[in-house]
Each structure stands twice: as structure tokens, then as C-alpha cells.
Amino acid sequence: MNKLGVHALVWVGGWSEAESEKAIAATAELGYDIIEIPVLNPEAMDAAVTARQLETYGVRPTTSLGLRDDNDISSEDPDIVARGEATLSDAVHFARDIGATYLGGVLYSKLGKYAGPATAAGRRNSIEVIARIADKAKAAGIGLGLEPVNRYESNVINTGKDALAFIDETGSDNVTVHLDSYHMNIEDGDHAAAIEACGDRLGYFHVGESHRGYLGTGTIDFRTIFRSLASIGYDRPITFESFSSAVVDPHLSSTLAVWRNLWDDGADLARAAKTFMESEINAAAKVRGS
Fold it and tell me: What are the E-state strand segments in the chain?
């Protein structure tokens, strides 16, 4: 079975010592293999404390982030691009120091709505920075994953095919695609085809419901998604992601447009998600083996 993960924002809104211990302990208690840690402010996060807590509770880390207006590497402003590259470099260092081998998410642009399409110069800046960060990450034993997000959260990469083309332009062999069912539900008409197009270049998979609430209560066809993952032999992490302003930092809630909460009990949500994912993985495996 794939290693199963849960996003830290199911548990906590920040990453103080008390918050990180709460999130890691809760992840271990439910039997998840992985906690995905958002490295939103890497310079303010204590890697040594996090590494110690992960070891204590026997949980493996992955890391992710989304850039902002002031450090968007798809900008045409060289100072903004430089800040973004520094942020990504700091995130690689944090991931290395806590023992993570993966850094994914919206690494290639800000996470937020743009007023127009990406410019050629901005896209070129993004590609060049990702290529350099991929080399730095490879030297640290960390793979990068680019997460396509919906049109309201980036104008650079919205589909798996977009990500594949972007990765090809970086020329790097250390970058994979990081698909997310929530975003696929908006941008990809054929989920099976999107997964199959990525094939062995799919490095990470986010499971999120259409309304970001409890799995199986929205409109996403998870049966097709899990069967498609099985059909390509996907054996990498599958991580549950969901957001509620009851937990998430208010600024991030606004960025993600969390205007209504579909849950306020992270433990119940994560427990139900783990049961749901295990059931779908087992069902897909039976179909593949029949």
C-alpha cells in the first residue's frame, strides 16, 4: 500500500514548538506514515526541534509551500524573483535538516489570483529558478514536485500537462508532477487521462474533496482516481489535504478562499480520510489483480 500522509494544516495553523508537536503526535496517533509540513516561513521554523519530534513519534516528513506576491518567481521584477529563489533555497535547507526527501507545491508562482496570463518573461524566470533549485535540492537528496493548481490560484501551471511541459523546459531530472484531486476536479475533464499522461513522472498525490471537506461527501470520482493510480503502478505518497479557518491562519484562509468551514474537528476528519483512502486503495488493487 502507498504511504499515507496528512497535511499539517488539518491539525494546526502555525509551526511553533507546541504546534509542531501537536501535529506530529496526532499524525502518529492515527497511524499515518507521513506528515506534510508547509514551509511558509522557513527562516522562522526550527528544523532541529521538528527533526527531534519526528524521530520521537516515528513519522516521516514531506514539505510543501506556495509563494506570495512579494516572492513570486514568475514575476518580471528581478528583486521579487530573487526573494523567491531565496525562499525556495531556505525551504530546501529546512527539508534537508528535518530528514525530508520531497519539497512540492506551488513553487513556480504565487498562490493566488492573477489579473492576466503569465508573461513570457515571467514564465522564463520561473523555469530558470526552478532549474537552479532542482540542482540544489538534488545535491541535498530532495526531489521537487510542481503542483498544478486551478486558474484562480496560478496562471503558470493549471494541469498535469502544463506541469510536464514546464518540467521539460527546466531540463531537470529532479522534478516531478504533484497532482491534487481538488484542482484536477476544476481543470481536468478526464482524471484517468491526466494521471496516465503523467505516468512514472507523477511524484506525489494530494487527495482533497471538491469542497475541501470530508472525503466522499463531494463530487469527485475517487474510484476512478484510485484505479488510475493503481493502473500506472503509482507507489509513492498519497496525502490528504483539507482546510478550515477553525485551524488555518486567517491570512492563509483568505488566500485559499475558505469562506465556509466544512469541519472543525481535525482528528475526526483525518481519521475518516485515512479509512476512506485505505478502502479505495484496497478496492483498486483488487480490480487491478482480477
Answer: 4-7, 34-38, 60-67, 102-110, 143-146, 175-180, 202-207, 238-240
